[in-house]
Automatic annotation (TrEMBL):
<keyword id="KW-0560">Oxidoreductase</keyword>
<dbReference type="InterPro" id="IPR020471">
    <property type="entry name" value="AKR"/>
</dbReference>
<comment type="similarity">
    <text>Belongs to the aldo/keto reductase family.</text>
</comment>
<keyword id="KW-0521">NADP</keyword>
<dbReference type="InterPro" id="IPR023210">
    <property type="entry name" value="NADP_OxRdtase_dom"/>
</dbReference>
<dbReference type="InterPro" id="IPR036812">
    <property type="entry name" value="NAD(P)_OxRdtase_dom_sf"/>
</dbReference>
<dbReference type="Pfam" id="PF00248">
    <property type="entry name" value="Aldo_ket_red"/>
</dbReference>
<dbReference type="InterPro" id="IPR018170">
    <property type="entry name" value="Aldo/ket_reductase_CS"/>
</dbReference>
<feature type="domain" description="NADP-dependent oxidoreductase">
    <location>
        <begin position="16"/>
        <end position="260"/>
    </location>
</feature>
<protein>
    <submittedName>
        <fullName>Aldo/keto reductase</fullName>
    </submittedName>
</protein>
Length: 278
């Protein structure tokens, strides 16, 4: 099955559909990564905070897929914000993964109370310019964070990864990203099952003969979002990948859009200030 690709604002291409490795034990991660690649995924979304970067690198080396065919993301954790600390944290990530470059490196949270994301971003710019990272971006950044970042550095993030699902459609934030030329990537795209029983989802599932999870992932795809569902289960991995060959109607898309109630399953980026170690 051909993977749809997104062209980022730096000219690089990223698979629209990927899989995440959050909450997977380090020792289990190599097998999950191999299974994901065997299934057809070519984007693996990791982070220092997930505690399984060693397993991520090992899984890539064990897989029967060339490294240059896989788009690998990691994220800088909150206790490493600041220019020099970010450079050291990136070195630690590369040591754990055993990779010679990342395809995408993100600032995991803005932590506005800490007020270090500008200097952190300058470190990521340096890493990109040195060729150690192909693309750089952010996660959980709101409009004010992005505006300041761009105004003070002149560099627009390639990606903004935000919590996004039918209960939190993030219409305004998606529009901000679009206006700035930033790709929106959805984390927790299934909303932890929050919308699974909604008629808008179950009716579309019945019509298409697909699962409710597949309907929601297809909703992300048709909105032009990059989406990174997570599973360790090989059957669920296959189900998550099999969302590229059916179509939701315009009415179904509108009905799912209407499920928005501003419900977050994770922290609010404007107030989240956890700086604990990984």
């Amino acid at each position: 099955m051909t993977q749809p690709m997104m062209t980022l604002n730096d000219g690089r291409r990223m698979p629209q559909l990927g899989t995440g490795i959050w909450q997977i034990a380090d020792e289990d991660t190599p097998l999950v990564v191999r299974r994901a690649l065997q299934t057809g995924f070519r984007l693996i979304d990791g982070a220092a905070a997930y505690g399984n970067e060693r397993g991520l690198g090992e899984g890539l080396r064990q897989a029967d897929v060339a490294r240059d065919e896989v788009f690998v993301t990691s994220k800088l954790w909150n206790d490493a914000q600041g220019h020099d600390a970010a450079l050291r944290a990136f070195d630690a990530t590369m040591q754990r993964t055993g990779l010679d470059h990342l395809d995408l490196y993100l600032i995991h949270w803005p932590l506005p109370a800490l007020d270090a994301f500008i200097e952190t971003w300058k470190a990521l710019i340096r890493l990109r310019d040195e060729g150690r990272v192909r693309s750089i971006g952010v996660a959980n950044f709101h409009e004010a964070h992005l505006t300041r970042l761009i105004d003070e550095t002149g560099v627009v993030p390639a990606v903004n990864q935000i919590e996004l699902h039918p209960s939190l459609t993030q219409t305004a934030m998606r529009a901000v990203n679009d206006d700035l030329g930033i790709a929106t990537q959805s984390w927790t795209p299934l909303g932890r099952g929050d919308s699974f029983a909604a008629a808008a989802v179950t009716d579309a599932a019945a019509r298409t003969g697909r699962s409710v999870a597949q309907v929601i992932l297809r909703w992300h795809i048709q909105h032009g979002l990059s989406v990174i569902p997570k599973s360790e289960n090989p059957d669920r991995l296959a189900e998550n990948f099999d969302v590229l060959n059916f179509q939701l109607s315009d009415d179904e898309m509108i009905a799912i859009d209407a499920l928005d109630r501003g419900h977050r399953t994770g922290p609010d980026p404007d107030t989240f200030d956890y700086r604990g170690a990984i």
